[in-house]
Amino acid sequence: MINPFGKPIEQLEEEDLHKLIEEETPEGLYVEYKEDFPRHLAKIVASFTNTFGGWIIIGADARNPRNVPTSFPGIDISNDPKDRFRNICQGNITPVPLFSSKLIIKTKDTKRGVLVVKIPESTYPPHITNDGRIYRRNMEGSDPVPETDRHILDRLFEKSKHNKTEVKAFINRKLQKGDQDEMMFKVMCCPVPLNLKLIDPFFVPERISRLKKMARSIWKDTLPHHIRFEPEGFAFDAENHRLEILRSGVVCYFCTIPTYVKK
């Protein structure tokens, strides 16, 4: 997905909005400008997540033939715009898509702000709006995909099925590791889709130091016997504990469950 700001959404500031004006970034496949919350916001969100992802910027003035922003007057922030956006998605889209948002407060009027929302391409499409339709993105806006277009619908459902199968296979492969004769407590945290974004650089001294501190907090006073470097990431081994932290963001924890035999 194209990022018109060139930086993470968490780092956005008011000056980054002016960059959109200077570069004359128009609406299109990845960007949508709105003066306020539109009635069809759920359709816009669904169209982004069902296609390639994109950005919605609420509090922008782009009323011109080229659909480029000329100013960012902002919106009233007294009703918590982030919460309002979340409620619209939860009440009108199934399943609810992932998104992240940043409310940029206006420096000249702290009662107003610009809501920037990043919507990634969905891992488990299609996302259906409460009117029962599936919306996708084109160069000018969001249009419903005709229900007779089986090729597009099949592609969306197949993508969802493939991602679910891939995650299940990865989890099963990881959980089958270890001594099958021992009772094990196993926990996995797995981002989806797999390997979407690898942590790079990963094998650096600063990261190892931070991971050691984390291992100490998990095992209290019992330090891991050693740290093993694997192609996928780090493995911390203790007497009956094992913690794996992988470059893909996956975290695995394995712990042997003691068994007692009555005599």
UniProtKB/TrEMBL annotation:
It comes from Desulforamulus profundi. Transmembrane segments: none annotated. Signal peptide: none annotated. It comes from the Bacteria. Residues 27-144 form the Schlafen AlbA-2 domain. Pfam families: SLFN_AlbA_2 (PF04326). This is Transcriptional regulator.
